[in-house]
Every structure is written in structure tokens, then in C-alpha cells.
Amino acid sequence: MNGEKVKVAIVGSTGYGGVELIRFLWGHPHAEIVSVISVSSAGEPLTDGFPHLSEIIVQPLDGLNPEELAAKVDVVFTATPSGVSAKLVPQLLEAGLKVIDLSGDFRLKDGSEYEAWYKHEAPAAGFLEEAVYGLAEIYGDEVKGKELVSNPGCYPTATLLGLIPALSAGWIDPASIIIDAKSGVSGAGRGMNLTNHYAEINENMKVYKVNKHQHIPEIEQTLGHIAGEPVTVTFTTHLVPMTRGIMCTMYAQLKGAYTEEDLIQLYRQYYEGRPFVRIRDNGKWPATKEVFGSNYCDIGFAADERTGRLTIVSVIDNLVKGAAGQAIQNLNLMMGWEETTGLKLTPVYP
Amino acid sequence: MNGEKVKVAIVGSTGYGGVELIRFLWGHPHAEIVSVISVSSAGEPLTDGFPHLSEIIVQPLDGLNPEELAAKVDVVFTATPSGVSAKLVPQLLEAGLKVIDLSGDFRLKDGSEYEAWYKHEAPAAGFLEEAVYGLAEIYGDEVKGKELVSNPGCYPTATLLGLIPALSAGWIDPASIIIDAKSGVSGAGRGMNLTNHYAEINENMKVYKVNKHQHIPEIEQTLGHIAGEPVTVTFTTHLVPMTRGIMCTMYAQLKGAYTEEDLIQLYRQYYEGRPFVRIRDNGKWPATKEVFGSNYCDIGFAADERTGRLTIVSVIDNLVKGAAGQAIQNLNLMMGWEETTGLKLTPVYP
Amino acid sequence: MNGEKVKVAIVGSTGYGGVELIRFLWGHPHAEIVSVISVSSAGEPLTDGFPHLSEIIVQPLDGLNPEELAAKVDVVFTATPSGVSAKLVPQLLEAGLKVIDLSGDFRLKDGSEYEAWYKHEAPAAGFLEEAVYGLAEIYGDEVKGKELVSNPGCYPTATLLGLIPALSAGWIDPASIIIDAKSGVSGAGRGMNLTNHYAEINENMKVYKVNKHQHIPEIEQTLGHIAGEPVTVTFTTHLVPMTRGIMCTMYAQLKGAYTEEDLIQLYRQYYEGRPFVRIRDNGKWPATKEVFGSNYCDIGFAADERTGRLTIVSVIDNLVKGAAGQAIQNLNLMMGWEETTGLKLTPVYP
Amino acid sequence: MNGEKVKVAIVGSTGYGGVELIRFLWGHPHAEIVSVISVSSAGEPLTDGFPHLSEIIVQPLDGLNPEELAAKVDVVFTATPSGVSAKLVPQLLEAGLKVIDLSGDFRLKDGSEYEAWYKHEAPAAGFLEEAVYGLAEIYGDEVKGKELVSNPGCYPTATLLGLIPALSAGWIDPASIIIDAKSGVSGAGRGMNLTNHYAEINENMKVYKVNKHQHIPEIEQTLGHIAGEPVTVTFTTHLVPMTRGIMCTMYAQLKGAYTEEDLIQLYRQYYEGRPFVRIRDNGKWPATKEVFGSNYCDIGFAADERTGRLTIVSVIDNLVKGAAGQAIQNLNLMMGWEETTGLKLTPVYP
């Protein structure tokens, strides 16, 4: 490091993912925010839309020119919508920049799968191959030194961290997996629609996109990779009246008489040395607020003797471990820094 | 009716179930609240604890003497805790009163099952046999003229109304049922504990009593009765940051290639003439706020071709269809009145 | 009445005021909803946007033709935006209909004042004169038999009911009035803007339109009418993270050594026979949830000896007493029915 | 610093103030948490009650022995209830420790005033004199090198930072000050009472302790000190359904024709070099969420020409600038470190 900070830019700074990136980068000891970019609002102050950053981000928003950007910064975070990243990221890579992409555009290895679920044209196959899927606790070792990291989705992060150790150990039947996922409202972003209207979702709970969510192929691709065979899941998403937080309650048939203690031991071994996954003690369950504002993923278990079914509960903050926090974790891994750099924040409780 | 109203009393008026009973009875054309009873607060105004009833309930709270009560009223609602009803209800019946009990004490036919799950002594077997399980849309015809109705629990009501038509038709595998239930905080009552503290549960989501909730035997007893064989379910309960509302997301293996349209038709036929169950159109899902404050149970479906699994979502207001509203519905059925009397209120939205 | 119901229509049925009108009219013994009108969505089912009314409102939305409407109904509720009512209401009146208007268009007697605050062209002066300001507890006697009632705004209702008795008695200095008003989010309607976005206003509190709210002239007009001299107020509006409810905390200099008991007595006398205003006992304060879903306005007081200042707190449900409920109350008064007809609902608590 | 960290202990670690202190100290570069103390729960893991600190605070809770503590640490934060600190703090000081006290016990210079408002015995007068009132932006220069800092209350912090510049400049009439304060629920602490019950305060707004809050003498003492004459305020406190955040809307009569621009300039000059106070631009108002989780106090203004009244709005996070954050700020000032050390966190938004 010899004292010099790595220079970073954020594209798509006017969304929730963008301002969370700023929160973590502002306190990061080895990185410096050099450019905060919004194509649609270039020249305006970021604080018009986000006054909480008053006197923190004082320069106006920049426009986007990949060549000029490459002269100023080393790494770009693209917190841009699906379909936009697909076109933008190749330009940034060709300009010599490293990219951590927070959209869904580079997560699926099979472009036709992407097009079926996202309804946008897929990036060229070469880029899809090049991209590392940055689920840090699973594929973190592959991130180091890479040019393009595809940051996982929020639901897949909570789901996969909760399922992989048991699936990898062969303890659960891959054909039996049901994921009942619940998310706070910020997961849908800052765009306006009636579902996000306070009077509509406060004191309310909704279910949506049952078995149709675009995060399904990302989950199945990764589970299939771990299981060594295709995996098909049942996946339900719910909207809960809170701003942040994802809880995934997952069900699978156990392939043996494993107890909660067995599972705790298995998971603690699997995640040893990975400080952002915390396995609850037997009989304890994680709650979303216990990871609020932080990069943790907390996990708990119940193995039911009566039915032979395993229940796994995992929680994350969708904007942190499910987006900006994991992106910073990937920056750390990419640059060879300590994984927790700039992320060593306790959850904000209560 | 010849113009005279049936006289009713409420025991346990200082809980949420009690004040909801008052809400519905105050506007009921054939019933009159004659006594509002609280053993612990007798002599005090109800409005000390519930000022929203100022100038509505003006008499002080009464104490409880079954004989005297029998001289004044015809029907008693017991919104008393588990263990209390077990002792109180027989006294009321013996005094010649009709009783609608909102506790769990008379729901299980097998007293030892009750004792295992509730940790209280069970009522005498005769009373357990006498009690009708007042799940109105299923067993409503048996309620008419009965002396003792055991009002179903909130989770069982949402669960059973969602599962019974498909189970009864033999369309789902009884061994495959998983119930992922979510409830607002009022379900835990007005008693204080840290879980109910606003700062702890606001902007939070918790999971609790996984496979251990005392409503499980009530669900399994009824499903077993419908299926004609013992049924064991996986049952998870979650606490969601809202005051009212239950959503049950239920999963089961389909025994044939049934489509959503088939299910909608099956359920609409099953519930024909039952105005409080509403089956959503294909592709639409119910939300808890769409039944807020009302006696409706709304249901939606997804049948997944890929996995052969059925997803059923049912919602109720836990304090209405899950407690006081269904109790009034049972009063109506018991007395031979129109099922909707005093309950014809639209949901309060937004 | 001779058994026949008065036929009513609602224009602007796709807003929150509209569906609240439906809630109260559905249970109203003397009124029948004959037409539910939305110019923009004519022909579509109302339940597309408001599924909570499934199986309750089954006919599709009607378009609007004043002549045809006059052939079918007796009274029209116009829950239309400011500027729209100004043009529509005269047409309805000319077609022979009675109108209860929920917009701000007919509240100000001085058209130029209207234009200054609302930025729309005012209705013709004749209509402004004809309109009765339907603050039911104050001007209710003038409503009977009228053709056009202008239903008060939500903030003015809470403010005026809280201030008028003390002002009318000459107990407070009209020049000293400060109104610190707080509202739930539904007051801003169903239209989308960033302020209503759940993630923005949940766990947040905002202040807006300080001394600039369009309800100010309506408050000052009425206070001036009561005081017999012009009154200028300081008026601050806040947005609170809840769906329903307005609380107005009001400050004024006392003109004598009046105690809380004096005030309670004054107010109870003033509102005698007016069942929807409830004055709290000494030392008790009203909370917004204690009127949730109901037509009540609850009021409490503190008289501070140290400063000679009076603090008045009044609460209403902005969509009920502040909109649809008071409109039904005005229908009752207009038709000569009991004031509480169809409104005798306890607050929904908790 | 020569590399060695200052050793600190927290007494009263099982409240919200305590865990917020841990949040800031865990990331503080010059301080190290050596002991986490709870008299009532000594020996138990802190994470039993606060699982969000799993794998962060792993040692069990310590008991309290001032002599032994003095051998281990340099500075103690006492986040103990009023009445407890009064007795404890003198013992800690006598053992040679520096103390930052978060209770109200050392804020009032006049012990009899303390006893009148707090209903506890006051600490000895010598300790009251010795204590510096740590309102950092106003009295920060006096904190350096002191042994005992009395950390201000949450309401006083928001109130005083909002009023002092205008009062100090003689622009407002001290006799005219009205403070309409609103707070999130965490301000009442973790103790259970019905007011904190989620079902009671969600979707609700309450007013309490009107002109009777124990923070009033602290506000009046400081305003009197600034004004050079006794100041009496009208002070209303409200409970708002959110976890964190205080908004004070304050009213005062202007003594001249000052504009919003004048006020902005005055305040920005007054707080120059004080990074935690942010003055909003003309026409912009702060919202509580814009300081959530951070140590900022944001302020906005409206000067009303019609009434000559000034409206000031100030917001803080009650647990941060109103408690733990300001305590850390006082630690920094006490030790001669940069004021922002360990506090340079952006608000958590949304």
C-alpha cells in the first residue's frame, strides 16, 4: 500500500446501493472516493436527493466517460440497473478499469438463461466467463487479482450461505429444497410504485413473484455447482413492513439423523476463518435487526425428528451483505487486503 | 328474535380479544353487552386501560360469579388464558350458560395431547367431547344449538382454511405439508415481554418456536380428521413488525397435474355460500392489509410445474377471523342467525 | 324514509377518501351506493386497485355524466382533487343533485384567497356563498336541507374542534395561537412521490410546508369568524411514520387563570350532545390510535401556571373525521337523520 | 498517544446507551474496551441479551468494584439510571478514575432542583460543581482534562443546539420559547411498560409529561446561563412510532426583522469548526432519518413575517448525539483528541 489509497468511483450513486457504498468507503482506510457518478443527474449535488450526506459528499455528481475515468481511478463499482451494466461494464474493462458490478448482468454463466429471466440482451459470453461470482465466503479465493467481480444478489446471498454447507456435505436432498424468503422494502430500490407507498405496505405483508423471481437461476446455478447435479428450488418472496433486512427460512429433507448440534458443528467448521458468518448456538435463532447495517450473515437450525426435515434460517441486511457491504468485501479480496477492512462495524441496534 | 336481544358477557375483557369482541358486539343488532368482566380489575373502568372505548363502555368492570351471571346473561365469551378457561368454562356451563371459549383449552379432543403442549391440566374428557371446534366454514353446521364452542386459534384458522379443500379432495400428499406462518405482534397479547418491546421488534423480523408451537396439535388433529389418517406438519412461526395480520405460506406436493385454475375452481366450490372466504383470481395474491379489521380469509395459489409443488397463501386478521370475529360468527351460528350478522364490515384500508 | 334508501354516488373512488366512503356507506342503513365513479378508470373493476373490496363492490367503475347520474341518484360525494371539484360540482348541482364535496374548492368564502393558496381558478362566488362549511359540531345546524356541503380539511377539523370553545369563550389570546400539527402518511393521498416511499418515511419524521400549508386560510377564516376579528396563526405540519392519524398540539396564551378543570368543563358543555367529540379527564391525553378508524375527535389540556400558556391536544383519524366520516356525518345532517347513523363504530384498537 | 490505547469500561452495559457506546468504541482507534459491566448480570454473556454483538463482545459481563476497576482502566462511562449514578460516580472519582456520566444526576448545578424533578437524593454539591456539562459544541472547551463530564440529555441536546445561537445573539425573546419535542421509542430505554408495547405504540402517536419532563430544568438552566436571566419554557414531549430520532420544533418571537438567510448565516458562523452541526440551506428542513445512527445535529429555520415568529427545527439520533455519540465526543475532548475520532460515520440511510 505504501500509504497511497486506491482510487474508486461509483456509478449509479443515486440509488440505495450507491449511498451504502459511500457509507463504507468514507471510512475505508485504503480506498478513496474520487468520483461519484450519475448519468442522469450529472452536475447536481448528490445531497439534493440524499441530504444525509451533507458536508460529507460536497462535489457535484460526475458524468460518465470511461476513458477519462480510467485516468483518475483504479476500481469502479457499478450499481446500475440490469441491462445497463451489461453494456457499461465491458467499456470500463476495456478502458483498463477493475469493476465490481452490483447488477444481475454478470451472475449467470449461461447468457440465454439471463435473457429468459431478465428480459435484456446478455453480455458477450467472454465477459460472463471472465466474471467471478463474488459470494465471498464461498468463492472469495477466486476473487483475488480479478478484473471483474459480479456481486451476488441479496436473496441468493442469504439463501446460499444458509444451504451450501449442508448441501456440500451431502446431508440434504437437493430435490427437496423450499425457500421461503422475506425482504424489507428497500430491496425494491428507490423507484416509485404503489407497492412501495408507505400507506400500502405499512402494517401489511405481501407475497410476490412466487417461483418467478429473477434470483432463482442464480441460486440454482450455484446450488447445482455445489451439488454436482441440477437443482430446482421452490422459491417464494415476501415483502415485510421494514426498510432493511432479509430472512430466508429454508426447508429440506435430511439424508440422515443429523441433530442441531451436528449442523452447528458442520457450519462452524465450514465457515471457520470467515468472520462475517455467525452460527447461532443451539436453540437460538437469528433476527434481521441483529445484522442491521452490518455485513454479517447469521444462521440458525432446527432438525425435526418427526418429519426428518431440516429448517434453516439465515438473515442479512439486504443493502449490506446483500449489496454494498459484500461489494466492499470483494474489493478487499480483489486487492489482497484483510477481508474486514472498512467493514468492521457492529450492527446498529436497536 | 321478537325484538329482544340476546344478553352476553365477556370474561377477560382487558385483553385484545376482549376489546375486539366489544367492537363487534357494540354494533350487533341481536346481541347486547350486559357485563364486561375482569377478575383482576373488577370495579375499575375498562377505559383506564382502553381509552378508545371512552363514552362507549361506561359501566365499571364486573367481577365474576357464575350463578349471578347466569341470572343476567345468556351467552358468555371467555377470552381467558389457557389453563384459566379449563377451570372456568365447566362452572359457566353448569350454571346454565352457553359458552364460546377463545382459549386453547377445549380444542384438542385428547386431553393428554393438551397437557403435553400446553403444560396445564386438561379439562375433563366429557367437556372436551362436548365442545364443538368452531372453525365456522368447516364445522359451522355442528355449532347450531350447541352449549360450548371452542373457537379456533389464529394460526390454525389461516392454515386449515387454506389447506382443507385440497387435502379433502386428495390433491395433495398429507406427508408433504410445510407451513411457513408469519404473524403481527398482537398475536402475543398485551402482556409485556422483551419481544413485544417496540424498539426490539420494529424494523425487525424474528422466528420462534420452530416445530414447537402449541397450535401444531390443533392443526394436525383437524388435518388428520379431514385426511382420514394421521398428518404431521412442519410448522414455523415468524414475528413481523406489524400489529395485526397473519399470513400462512404453505407448501405441499401435488398428487396430479393440477393447475392454478383447477385449484381456484375447487376452492370456490368448496366455500360456496361461505361469504368470509375469498379466493383470489389467478395470478393475484392476498395481502394481510386486505383483510385488516375484518372477518375475511383470503387465499391464493401457485402450482409449480417444475417441482410439482403447490404453494398456498392465506391471510387473516389474527384478532378478527383468528379470534373475536370468528367468535361472533360462532355466536351467530349457535343462535341460528345469519352468519354475517354484526360482521358485515369492509376491511379498513389503508 | 318509508323504507326506501337514499341513493348515492361517489366520484373519485380510486383514492383513500373514496374507499373510506364505501366502508361507511356499505353499512349505512338509510343509504345505498348506486354508482362508484372514476373518470380515468371507467369500466374497470374497483377491486383491481383495491382488492380489499373483493366481493363487496362487484360492479365496474362508472364514467361520469351529470344528467344521467341525476336520474339514478340523490346525493353525490365528490372526492376529487382541488381544481377538479371547482368545475364539476356546479354541473352536478345544476343537474339537481345534492353534493358533499371533500376537496378544498368550496371551503374559502373569498375566491381570491382560494386562488392564492391553491393555485387554481376559484369557483364562481355564488357557489362559494351557497356552500356550507360542514364542520359538523360547529356548523351542523346549517347543513340540514342544504344542496352543497363543503367538507372540512383534516388539519382544520382537528385544529378547529380543539380551539373553538376556548376562543369562543374569550379565554385565549387570538394573536398567540401556534399549531404544531402531525399527520400520518395517508393524508397525502395515494399518488406516488419520494416522500411517500416506505424506505424514506419509515423510521423517519419530517417537517414540511411550514406556515405555507393550504389549510391555513381555512383555519384562519373560521377562527376569525368565531373571534369576530382576523386571526393569524403559526402552523407547522409534520409527517409521522404511520398510515392514519392527526395530532394537533396547540399553544395559546390564556387570558385568565383558568385551570385544566375549567377547560374540561367548558369543552364538555360546548360539545354537549355532540357524540363524536370526547374530552379527556384531567391529566389524561388522547393518542391517535384511540380514534383509529372512527369518527371521534378526542381532546386534552394542560394549563401551565408558570407561563400562563394553554396546551391543547386534539386527535382524529384523518381519513374518517378528517374526510369520509365527517362527510357521512354531513349526509346524516343534510337528510335529517340521527348524526351517528352508519358511524357508530368503535375505534379499531390495537 | 505513542501507540497505546486508553482503557475504558462501561457500567450499565445492558441498556441501549451501553450497546451504542460499544458500537462506537469497537471502532475507536485510540480507545479499548477493557471491561463491560453489569451489576445485575455479572458473569453472564452480554450476547444473551444482545445477540447482535455475537463474536464481537465475547468476555462475560463483569461485576463492579471501583478499586479493582481503577487498576485496569482509565475512563469509565456510567450509563446507569438516575439515582444510581449519584452514588456510584463519586466512588469512581475517588478511586482515581475519569468518568463520563450519561444519567441526569450531575447535570443540574442546584441539588434541590435535581431532587424536585428527579425524586432522588442529589449528589454532594462539590461533585455537582466539579461536573462539566458536556454539550460539546457549546461547552466543549471546558471538557479538556476534566475528571467528570455530565453528558447532556437527548431532548436538551436537540433543543439547546437549536436555540442557543439565536438566544445568544439576542434575536429572540427568551420569554416566548415553546418547544414541541417528538421522540422515538428507544428514548424510554429497554425497560418494559405498556407504552413501549409494539401493538400499543405502532401506528400511534402519544403526548406525555406536558410541562413536566425532567429535562426541563436542564434546558432552562442552560438557556438562562446563555441569556443571562432566568428562562422559563413551555415544553411538550411526544412519542412517535419509530425506534430512534428526536425532532424539536421550536417557536420564539423574533426581536427584529431577521430573515431565514440571516439565521442561516448566524448559525453557520456560530458552529464554524464544529463538524457535527449541519445547518440546512434556505427552504430545506432536516428529517430524523438524515442523522440516523450518526452524531449529527441538523437544523433548519422559518421566519414568519406575518407573525414575527421564528420556527426552528433540530433533529438528532437520541441514542447517538443524544447519548452515546456525544459521550464519545466528550471522551475525545477530554483526552485532547480530534473531536470526530471514532465518530466519523455517515448516517445509515435509508
Verbal overview:
Four copies of one chain form a homotetramer. Chain A is α/β, with parallel strands linked by helices. Chain A is 31% helix and 19% strand. The first copy, chain A, has helices at residues 16-26, 66-72, 84-94, 111-118, 125-130, 136-143, 154-168, 198-201, 216-227, 260-270, 320-335; strands at residues 6-11, 31-37, 75-78, 98-101, 132-133, 148-150, 178-183, 206-208, 234-239, 246-253, 277-279, 297-304, 309-316. In chain A, the strands form two sheets. A seven-stranded mixed β-sheet of chain A has the order 8-9-7-10-13-12-11. The longest helix of chain A is centred in the last third of the chain and has 16 residues, at 320-335. The model of chain A has no long low-confidence stretch (mean pLDDT 97). The interface between B and D is medium-sized, with 19 and 19 residues.
